[in-house]
Amino acid sequence: MLIIGSESSAPVASRDTLLRASLHSVFHDGNPRLIFQPINFREKKSGITRISFSSQYALLKLATPSASGSNDMDDSRHQRRILKAAEGYLELDLPEQALRELDQIKTTDEFRCRYHILRGEAFRQREEFEAALLSYHKSHCGEPENLIVLMGMAWCYKRTGQLHRSIQMMKRALEVEPDNALIQFNLACYFSLDQDKSQALSWLGRAFRQDRSLISLVADETDFDPLRDDPDFQYMIETVGTTEKQG
């Protein structure tokens, strides 16, 4: 069984070639099939791991169907496989290929939300934040508690000068998962940018109580620059850092 995922050490170009070969087999040979399993990932930017988005994308596996499986594919099954292919491309940070796959989809009610979520993610990866927000909004009415949508919208609002809306979306995400340390950490980042020291330190403290290892991200997180020289912020970072080193 062949597994293609975000932890692969192969260069992007070779992984893309391998993925396209797999998709060719799926859509033209009719023998292998694609299986997706949920995973979480952290965005990497400029070689630095940053907590900014928690996704439910998939590891792409190439497997052989059971002998009883049918090679016939009705329109609904065909569209599902295209959606899964788009998810695989997004997992490999290949938004252009994902959008090409999605262009084949007919947006029926059955796939409407998933289609717009994936388009939103593709545009977000391309840093086309206004287009991403448009797609996220189209999916939000159907899945108002989807963390991908809520955090994706927060991400894009921040980058389009709408920080208060970013905070609003992140608070909605917390209503879905109140103890999610990554959401709490992001909320602390946004309040720091908003010059709200009290809220920033409050949410940062909650995030550290859930996961002290997040302390390793603070030094490179520019969102906390407004608080760098604040003695209360420095005390928190020093205290948590010392505790983390002691295990």
Automatic annotation (TrEMBL):
<feature type="repeat" description="TPR">
    <location>
        <begin position="147"/>
        <end position="180"/>
    </location>
</feature>
<dbReference type="InterPro" id="IPR011990">
    <property type="entry name" value="TPR-like_helical_dom_sf"/>
</dbReference>
<keyword id="KW-0802">TPR repeat</keyword>
<dbReference type="InterPro" id="IPR019734">
    <property type="entry name" value="TPR_rpt"/>
</dbReference>
<protein>
    <submittedName>
        <fullName>Tetratricopeptide repeat protein</fullName>
    </submittedName>
</protein>
